[in-house]
Amino acid sequence: MYDRHMELHIDGPPGHAATGRGPDSSAALEGLRDFVNTNDLEGGEDELELPEQLHAWLLARQLIPEHVEVDANAHRRAIAVREGLRALGRANNGEPIDVDQMDALNQAAAGLPVVVSADPDGWRLTPAATGIDGFLAGLMGTLARSMADGSWSRVKACRRDTCRWLFFDQSRNRSGTWCSMAGCGSRMKARAYRARQREAASA
After folding, report:
1. What is the CATH number of the domain that holds 17?
2. DSSP per-residue string spanning 145-183
3. In this predicted model, what pLDDT tens digit does every residue of 37-56 receive, in sequence order?
C-alpha cells in the first residue's frame, strides 16, 4: 500500500537538501506543486511537453546550470515523476490509485538516488546527482519527508476530472475536494444538481 502523508523542509528549491529539522515545508511543497501544475489539463497546455521546454522551465527558476542538457530520457523521467505525484494527490482526494503511474514514478525514482545523513538535531536527504536528476531527486526527497511528517495528506489533486490541479487542503478536518469552491466546486455542484433534476424528470 502507498503511504498518503508528506512534508519536509528544504534548504532552498527542490533539488537541494531535504531535512528533518523543523516543521516548515511550505517552500518545498510550493515548488513541488508548481512543477506538477505545469500540465494544465483544463486549458490543454503542457508547459513541459518537449525536452527544450523543460530545460527552459528549469533554467528560468535557476534549478539547473545553463550548460546542463535535458535529453529525451531525462524528459521522460521528469514527466513520470510529475504525473506520479499528481496520481498521489488524487489518491489523497479519495480516488483510486493509478497503478501504471505509480510504477512509472517508482521506476524513475530508482535512478534518482539520495544520500542520507544525520546528526543529533535531525536528518538530511541530499540528491546524489546534479542537473535534472538532482532536481527530480530533490522532489522525491520532499515527497519522502512530507510523507514522514504527515503533511502530504493535505496535498490533493482537484476532484474535477478536467482540472486535477494540485492544491493544499487548508480545511481543519482535511475534507477539501476542489482546488477552488468558487470555480471547480461550484461547477461540480451545478453538474450534480442537473443530474438530480434529470433523474427526477425521468422518474
Report:
1. 1.10.3300
2. HHHHHTGGGGEEE-SSTTT--EEE--STTS---SS-III
3. 999 988 899 999 999 999 99
